[in-house]
Amino acid sequence: MTERLAVTGTQRPATERQPGTVRVGIGYDSHRFDAACDLVLGGVRIEGHPGLSGHSDGDAVAHAIIDAVLGAASAGDIGSHFPPSDARWKGADSLELMTIATHAVRQLGWRVVNVDATVVCESPKIRPHAHDMRRRLADALGILPDQVSVKGKTNEGMGWIGDGEGIAVHAVALIEAV
Asked: Domain extents for the chain?
């Protein structure tokens, strides 16, 4: 995808912003498990586990990080740029969406400094895949793997996540004016 986002909003031009100014964004995403789908988290395909329902590939890790990065730049959210009503995004690779969103944020005069994501699920275990996720996410964000953190937590058997119905992801992104 060579798509470019048309970012709108009331942002001050980058020339009026002091280099080094930082902003923080928070992202969240959740999806139900769907046995008919492949499980993709942080750009990594995890075999032997039901996937996540979603219009794109259902990658809740990538979606939460995209929302955090866009939010930090006051550039909307994933749904405003890649709406599920648009057939172009059906089955889309979420890391490609992340690359597009990151490019849009750069066009606004920001660069991603780091991201931190917490995956909340009973299964699969995240730790065995975290290194590969960090590497894939870093590539899409245009940063180094040591600027990306991915960790897993359980919900201790509570609620819909504890019942094994799906996954939720919380993400934080720090961006800096360039």
From this structure: 18-177
C-alpha to C-alpha distance for 46 and 125, rounded to whole angstroms? 10
User: What digits encode the pLDDT tens for the residues 41-65?
Assistant: 999 999 999 999 988 999 999 999 9
pLDDT of 8 reads 52
Residue indicated by tokens 């991915």: 150
Nearest alpha-carbon partner for 105 in 149, 56, 68, 63 = 68
Owner of token pair 């996937």? 51
Report the alpha-carbon distance of residue 172 to residue 71 in Å, rounded: 10
Amino acid 30: pLDDT? 97
Direct distance between the N- and C-terminal alpha carbons of the chain, in angstroms, rounded to an integer = 26
Contact indicator for 102, 142 with CB cutoff of 8 Å: yes
Distance between CA 59 and CA 43 in Å, rounded?
A: 7
Residue 6 pLDDT > 70:
no
Share of the chain above pLDDT 70, in %: 91
CATH architecture designation of domain 18-177? 2-Layer Sandwich (3.30)
Is residue 7 a contact partner of residue 76, using CB atoms and an 8 Å limit?
yes
